[in-house]
Amino acid sequence: GRSQLVGEQMTAPTSTLLDEREIREAIGEFCGRFPASYWRMIDREGRYPDEFVRELTEAGWLACMIPVEYGGGGQGLAQAAWILEEINHAGGNSAACHAQMYTLGPILRHGSEQQKLTYLPRLASGELRLQSFAVTEPDAGSDTTKISTYAQRVAGGYRINGRKIFTSRYQHSDLLLLLARTTPVAEVRKRTDGLSLFLVDLRESGDQIRATPIETMVNHETNELLIDDLMVPESSLIGEAGRGFHYVLSGLNAERVLVASEAIGDGHF
Q1: What is the pLDDT of residues 24-60, one digit of tens each?
Q2: What's the rounded Cα separation, in Å, for the pair 91 and 268?
Q3: Radius of gyration, alpha carbons of the chain
Q4: Other Cβ atoms closer than 10 A to 184
Q5: In this predicted model, what pLDDT tens digit does every residue of 143-189 receive, in sequence order?
Q6: Are 167 and 134 in contact (CB under 8 A)?
Q7: d(CA 70, CA 209)
Q8: b/e map of 131-157 (b: 16 or more CB within 10 Å)?
Q9: 160-175 in b/e burial notation, b at 16+ Cβ within 10 A?
Q10: What is the pTM of this model?
């Protein structure tokens, strides 16, 4: 059945697709608890909107695209776009947490059943956050095929070394999607081959990843990452080795839709 308002907060959506009016009204009411004064305070203090993200998660909205069988709302991309658009329409900043929606694409489409069972329910409940996606590198520009971060196959997993830049919300994530080469570009038939995607548990990375914040005019923090002999298990690999570029596109295409919806919300504000 349809979700129902409980007190001031809406419960997590169900597998029945919510209509646009229902979503916009519920998100508008939710955002009423985070007025412009809250966002001005966050901006003035230069800090992450933890309270907003926590309550948005508890209300089930960030898990809207996670299938019901993994604890999510079972909604589609259109519903996710309406949610983010309405947050920005209300004067909020959905960019602080939108990554947890579009980073799910590669996991949902290409992740193993064990990865889904291990992480999706905990993302849906808010026990874990996946807010960070490490693709861009200082020397690769906009050509992702030129990245040099390398994941070497070793006993039990991979050893990863390299650098990433403009990796946002790293400090507010428990998990990181990381793209790396597993086959040198000189040895592949197509430059888009030989890239692999990993789901890294940052709670276990220690000082093998060092983040240096980059000064920008956004309050969700973006960083340069230095990856030094990061060891990840075989189970961190998403899908097949060498297919990571194609998996990343499945997330970035959703990102374009969601970010565009935010811009529309800003235009209405």
Answers
A1: 999 999 999 999 999 999 988 888 999 999 999 999 9
A2: 9
A3: 19
A4: 10
A5: 899 999 999 999 999 999 999 999 999 999 999 999 999 999 999 99
A6: yes
A7: 29
A8: bbbbbbbeebeeebeebebbbeeeeeb
A9: bbbbbbbbbbbebbbb
A10: 0.89
